[in-house]
Amino acid sequence: MKTVLAIENVHKFFKVGFIPKKKEILKGVSFAVAESEIFGYLGPNGAGKTTTLKCILGLIFPDRGKIEIFGQPHLEPRAKERLGFLPENPYFYDYLTAREFLDFYAQLFRVKKNEREDRVASLLNLVGMGRARDLQLRKFSRGMLQRIGLAQALVNEPSLVLLDEPLGGLDPLGRKEIRDIIIRLKAEGKTVFLCSHILQDIEMICDRVAIIVDGKILSQGPLTDLISEKILFTEITLSGLAAKDLAGLGESLSAHGGRTLIKVFHEEKIQEILDLVKNRNAKIHSLIPRTQTLEDLFVEVVKSQ
Amino acid sequence: MRKNLSLILILCLSCLLFMGLKLEIDKVSRQKIPGSSIIYIPSGDYLKMATFGFSSLMADIVYIWAIQYFGNTAIPDKFDHFVHIFSIISELDPRYIDPYEVGALIALYDTKDVALSIKLLDMGFAKNPDLWIFPLEAGHYAQLYKKDFPLAREYYKKAMDVPGAPDIVKRLYANSAFKVMDIKTAWETWLEVYETAKEERVKKIASNHLYNIKATVDIRGLRSVLEKYRAKYGRFPDKLSGIVAAGLLPFIPKDYDNTDYVYDPKTGDVKTAVIPWKR
Amino acid sequence: MTIKVIALNTFKEAVRDRILYLLLFFAALSILVSRILALLTVGDRAKIIKDVGLASISFFGALMAILIGTGLVYKEIEKRTIFTLISKPMRRHEFLLGKFFGLVLTLLVMLALMSVIFLALVFFHTFSVEWKMLLAILYIFIEVILITAVAILFSSFSTPILSSLFSLCFYLIGHFSWSLETLIKKIPAGIFKVLAQIVYTILPDLENFNFKTEVVHGLTIPPQVLLYSAAYGFLYTVFILSLAILVFRRRDFI
């Protein structure tokens, strides 16, 4: 697997306060992103996610460490040629129309004039902004800005796409659309590096993740490796059994409208409950085994700090 | 770092070059058109409008510039615009005293043209009729440098009339009146000074002057009569009383202190018994 | 090539800035007001019109350069539009130079507009198109270019208000350089004098671009002076821009 992005032992200090005091934001961050994978970069607020991203992009200069993109030092313009970036809460030149905006960025990548028009048109369609092509960006809603930002990140047909909170501020339909686009990018052979808070979406699309807490990478690896398949507990919704009957079998979560929701931790107890239901002629409405989610892992990792 | 090296090189090079150029430009500009900024000096009214209420600051700046300008020996004909420049300062800040006084002084020392200096002082007085210093200085200059007593007298009068003028102005006025032989005014003024004097010293000065005036008038009169006597009798009388005897004068005046004048029959000179200032 | 792209984009951005038109309006106003002022003089009315006109162009040109220039880079950093730009294969100096040339282009257009109004007004009074005025305006433009560079320098690390103040200081120092020269003459010879002279030579002398007097009075200007002044402007601008690029290059965009 070719490594597309490699970060080694990156440190970054900032001088904070009126009497400058050195604050270390990144304390030796190392990870690698392989070709054609969707990589999720997670962490609580202030952990250093955006700082890492800015180091990769050359907006900030790390004090120590090495960053390589496509095997080249990250500040080389040649490396940046194949990069696409969508910042968090994007803000663009609001006096430009969507088409002018994408055209401007295409020019920065030295896309030839005849190619530009086609590419701009196809990008607009890809993100579903075809109708708004002659609308000034100042009139765009948050979701629209997010989409046009994604279009801008793709204007040079990059091999590596870096997205900072691409799903923020979108309605569920919008989120699904963006998720689909990201998956499609992977199918086209592109690599996607994704910072996000929305763990459900990450869990849905990422191949590998890294969790950064307080400037240090605490956990990284393929999602399947990190999240155990072990069943944590089973949630059973049933009716027709009294609370005292279920005592000792699990935790009763709620009981109203005749239905009881019980959380069962031990597998044997499930069988016991099933037998009980059968014997008493009670009814089972649902039986859902819960495995560890990314959220569980995340909370666990963060709490361990 | 390598990128930055070439940039720093450009930085230093461009810096040195423009510094060099600046020195070159300075040389050329100064040679060709010395005092060229003088060509373009708007009148004070415009300048006042342009300074948005910073007119007194502007006055200061122009004044400082003017001092440098007039102190610059390299500029020929710099007094051509003398009055104009100082009138600008006057327009901007009429109450700024120094320019008038110093300007007058500069003009005097450089051009020896008392009239030019006085023009400036006139300007100052016109804008500040409550400041007696201006006509006083004008009178001084007229008296000291031009020995123009009529002019001096005019100015001393002007100064005298300003309420709050010091007593000495009156004395100067009286003195200059005397010098132009305006005996009446001189006498009256010295009398006034004598009567209103608050110090003994001043009283003494006044009385000395009064003595002097009387003596001058008396002596002049006596001398002319003595000449008449000589014309009539071929020689001067032995004693002053001789004139009275000849019927040419009703009586021999005594001096202010009621002492006799000293008479020399051989030359016909009449003098005071004492020097007026050393009574 | 990248510089051109950024420059044109900056031009588009600057041209949409309302401050520009406000200033243009006032510039036109003051040029036309000179007509009224001229009525107050006895004698050559055209002189007043030329004086006020050239002064307005100079003043408002400088003001435009400062007010727009100081916001140019700062806005991009504040609004974070710069993130998407710097992350592109663009060297940082290309960004800065693009901004600079974009603004210079804008100011060229603005000065041209003001010049047209001015020359038209002069024409109404003298019934001749006074092309000589353009010489003074050309050097005003050179001065304005230098001021633009300064504004961009400060804009790359300071807020618009502070940048404007600093740029204004630069402008004032530049126009009072002659007084420093006079002061230096009074200093007794020694290390202080030498230091003062060095400072004097480094500090900008914007009066080198001031040919308003000569042009209005029809005086001849030695071609040496014209050449040297233009070169001075060019070199000082290069100096300031190099400084700006140095500062901008190592800047962390938090």
Overall SS class of chain A: alpha/beta
Largest sheet of chain A: 6 strands, mixed
Number of helices of chain C: 11
The ordered H/E elements of chain A are EEEHEEHEHHHEHEHEEHEEEHEH
Please list the strands of the largest sheet of chain A in the order they lie side by side. Answer: 6-7-8-3-9-10
For this structure, the CATH topology of the largest domain in chain A is Rossmann fold
Extended strand count of chain C: 0
Query: How many separate helices of chain A?
Result: 10
The major pleated sheet of chain C works out as: none
What would you note in describing this structure?
The complex is a heterotrimer of chains A (305), B (279) and C (254). Chain A has 305 residues and is an alpha/beta fold. In chain A, 34% of the residues lie in helices and 32% in strands. Chain A has 10 helices and 14 strands. In chain A, helix 3 (98-108) crosses helix 4 (113-126). Chain B contains 12 helices and 2 strands, in the order ααααααααααααββ. Among the domains of chain B are: 43-128; 216-278, no CATH class. Helix content of chain B is 67%, strand content 2%. Mean pLDDT of chain B is 83; it is low at 31-39. The relative contact order of chain B is 0.05. Chain B has 279 residues and is mostly helical. By secondary structure, chain C is mainly alpha-helical. Chain C has one domain. Chain C is built from 11 helices and no strands. In chain C, helix 3 (45-78) runs antiparallel to helix 7. The relative contact order of chain C is 0.13. The chains are: A alpha/beta (305), B mainly alpha (279), C mainly alpha (254). The A-C interface holds A 14, 54, 57-61, 77-78, 80-81, 83, 85, 87, 89-93, 95-96, 104-105, 107-110, 149, 152 and C 1-2, 5-6, 9, 12-13, 16, 79-81, 83-91, 250, 252-254.
Keywords for this entry:
heterotrimer; A: 305 residues; alpha/beta; Rossmann fold; Alpha-Beta Plaits; 3 domains; six-stranded mixed sheet; four-stranded antiparallel sheet; 14 strands; B: 279 residues; mainly alpha; two-stranded antiparallel ribbon; 2 strands; 67% helix
